[in-house]
Structures are given as C-alpha cells and as structure tokens.
Specification:
Blueprint lengths: L2 E14 L3 E8 L4 E6 L18 E7 L5 E10 L2 H5 L2 H17 L6 H15 L5 H15 L20 E3 L4 E3 L9 E2 L2 H12 L2 H4 L4 H19 L4 H9 L1
Parallel strand pairs: 3-5
Antiparallel strand pairs: 1-2, 1-4, 2-3, 4-5, 6-7, 6-8
Helix pairs in contact: 2-3, 2-4, 2-8, 3-4, 4-5, 4-7, 5-7
Length: 242
C-alpha cells in the first residue's frame, strides 16, 4: 500500500458506518481524491474539526483500491468557522465547493486548487461581497476548465459589439443576428463587470451598481449550470434564501 502526502481542500464529507467519514478532497498534486477518515465523528478523534468542508490541510494518505485512508492531518487554513458564521457566505461557499467537485471529477489542476483556496480565503476574510466572490470564482474556474465565455465578440459569428444578449448555449454574448431563444438581456455594464471579475480587478468591479451586480450573478450561475449539465443543489438553496 503506497503512502503519499499532499495539500487538500475538503469539498464534502459523507457518513460511513458509525464513526467514520468519507472525504471528497481537491488536492494540489492528485486532483480529486476520496478518502476515509476513521473515527472522525467521535469526539476523541485526533483530526477533529480540521477535516471540515472549506478547510485546507496537509494530509498523509494510504492509497487503496477504492478509497484512500487519511493517516495524518495538519491544518494549513481553518476557514470553516468564519464562513459558517455568515449564512450568505456559507451558501455562496457551498456553491463553490459543489462546482469544484464537479469540475475536478476528471483530472484536477494546480490552478483549480489555488483558485478555490483563494476564493475561500476571500469569503472567510470578508474581503468582498459573497455574490461577487462567487461570480468571480465561477467565471475563473470555468475559464481554467476551457469554458471561458465570449465577451468581446459574438460567440457564434465573431462580430464585434456592443452586445445586448448573453446566451449560455452559444457560450457567451451574441449579436442581434445570432440571438437564440432563452438568451438573457444584458447591458454593457454587465459585460464590463464580467471582464473585471474574470481578471480579478475588484476596484473596477465595485463601480457596478447593485442591479448590474445582481444581473451578472444570475447570468454567471445560469451559465455554470449549463456547462455542468446539472442544477447546483447549493445554488437552489441560496436563491430561496435571497
């Protein structure tokens, strides 16, 4: 049985038996890993709260046929308590974790790991509005995965703007000649906000008014669900609470 060490962000925990937990992890070097943490649900567990979702840890694991096993866990960043203390941040964070889990089902990447670690830290530190952090994360994680939306030219014909419609099936903004049913009407301010969030230009992003920010969040989350070909459970809960 091979032993290895890696950094990991805990994406999800699932009960196993009376005391164990299955962890879904996004690691720096090994992509998505599923591992058992034995006795984690006992109050005497040596791992304690270190292996809660949102936390970043350094792990030693034994590789197994179906599931690996956690043998050591060292805290790198314990962001779970700060995020859980604010419900809006918690729900936005859950959407991020669910998206990361779906996108890392194949081969993971260091870029995806580092992007998620930075987004979680931004939520925990209250650096920006939760919705803005979520939108920026979704746009950037989709771009890393090869699904960056077209913003500067029509996604279908390549024509220049200005653009008034964003179409998820088309893959971004579309001109008047290429509009598809189901497209969302957007303003130039929304397109500019997308560009700012993709590049992490927060000062420019905060020049957008509340209506522009809200529209951008709705379009980004709808585009994410189209790319993933599934409804995000965490997003439906977040929308009901909005």
């Amino acid at each position: 049985m091979r032993t290895y060490t890696d950094q990991a962000i805990v994406l999800r925990t699932t009960k196993l038996g009376e005391a164990d937990m299955i962890l879904t992890l996004l690691t720096l070097e090994h992509g998505q890993v599923r591992a058992v943490a034995k006795g984690l649900r006992r109050t005497s567990s040596k791992f304690g709260a270190r292996l809660s979702p949102f936390n970043r840890v350094k792990l030693q694991l034994h590789s197994g046929r179906n599931l690996d096993t956690v043998t050591q866990a060292e805290s790198l960043s314990l962001d779970a308590p700060q995020i859980a203390s604010d419900y809006e941040r918690y729900l936005s964070g859950q959407v991020m974790l669910e998206t990361a889990e779906k996108l890392s089902e194949g081969e993971g990447s260091r870029s995806q790991y580092r992007l998620l670690a930075g987004a979680i830290a931004a939520l925990a530190n209250r650096a920006h509005r939760p919705g803005m952090v979520l939108s920026s994360y979704l746009l950037r994680t989709l771009a890393i995965a090869g699904w960056a939306p077209a913003l500067s030219e029509c996604a279908l014909c390549g024509a220049g703007g200005p653009f008034k419609v964003f179409s998820a099936p088309a893959g971004g903004v579309v001109c008047e000649d290429c509009q598809l049913s189901g497209g969302v009407r957007i303003s130039a301010a929304v397109t500019n906000l997308f560009t700012s969030l993709l590049s992490g230009q927060w000062p420019q992003g905060y020049q957008a008014d509340a209506l522009t920010q809200g529209t951008a969040e709705e379009v980004v989350t709808a585009y994410t669900e189209w790319v993933l070909e599934r409804k995000l459970k965490s997003l439906s809960v977040r929308d009901r609470k909005a």
